[in-house]
């Protein structure tokens, strides 16, 4: 959508504050603060701009947690961004967003992903074309129905003021998007996902995205507060590492954000901070029937209406 009133600075300020707020809250929860890595593209590189990576590795609770803010510009949209909009191919662009992935030590605490972003396509003599994207999704290793219901309830409530149709629409989009086609299984229990969103105009679209981003801590913190002290052993850690392999497969094969970053010449270290630190693969492995591991597949990695 074109909109000459795009307030790019307002989006930038909110994204930076969102990153700080989440990093400070989760650092306090862990007991170890996030490190800050501010970076800037060098002159002459394919992309211009920079960002801030907040990273916590080897924490008391988080094995790895990354929260990235980036604001970069380039001379031509990469193929992953213009595939659905061929008329914009070749335009310059500015992309900014906050993206996070959190990997706890405890296998009973789920991995979570959240992203909120805006992309503007530019062309001399024409109004800019903007759109928003983002969402959040939960990837448990051991399923709890009350956790899934809570997460989806917060997602639904964050969208409710902007239209009763948005949650079912974005939930289905999430289920379809975070799906490993080569495994014929979902990555987790979903949440919400949206892209190319600009229908209500800039101001209303930005308000909706803010509501989603601001809801993240309410969606995730109560779950990890409840599960953080649950005891586990080597068998649970091994299953967690096995299921983390699905996370790696999705991010490297299907994730549009990863592909956009790599195709546009983005900062590889920041793009791949979402990867879990400990992962393994097993050949043709299947869980024992009747186990909690088997229940993840039968009860949680299936299409469900959680709220």
Automatic annotation (TrEMBL):
Residues at which a divalent metal cation binds: 103, 113, 152, 182
Reactions mediated catalytically: coproporphyrinogen III + O2 + 2 H(+) = protoporphyrinogen IX + 2 CO2 + 2 H2O
The protein's Enzyme Commission number: 1.3.3.3
GO cellular component terms, A-Z: cytoplasm
Residues annotated as the enzyme's active site: 113 (proton donor)
Keyword Endoplasmic reticulum: no
Record keywords, A-Z: Cytoplasm, Heme biosynthesis, Metal-binding, Oxidoreductase, Porphyrin biosynthesis
Pathway: Porphyrin-containing compound metabolism; protoporphyrin-IX biosynthesis; protoporphyrinogen-IX from coproporphyrinogen-III (O2 route): step 1/1
Cofactor(s) the record lists: a divalent metal cation
Presence of keyword Metal-binding: yes
Coiled coil ranges: none
Described function: Involved in the heme biosynthesis. Catalyzes the aerobic oxidative decarboxylation of propionate groups of rings A and B of coproporphyrinogen-III to yield the vinyl groups in protoporphyrinogen-IX.
Family note: Belongs to the aerobic coproporphyrinogen-III oxidase family.
Name of this chain's protein: Oxygen-dependent coproporphyrinogen-III oxidase
Gene name per UniProt: hemF
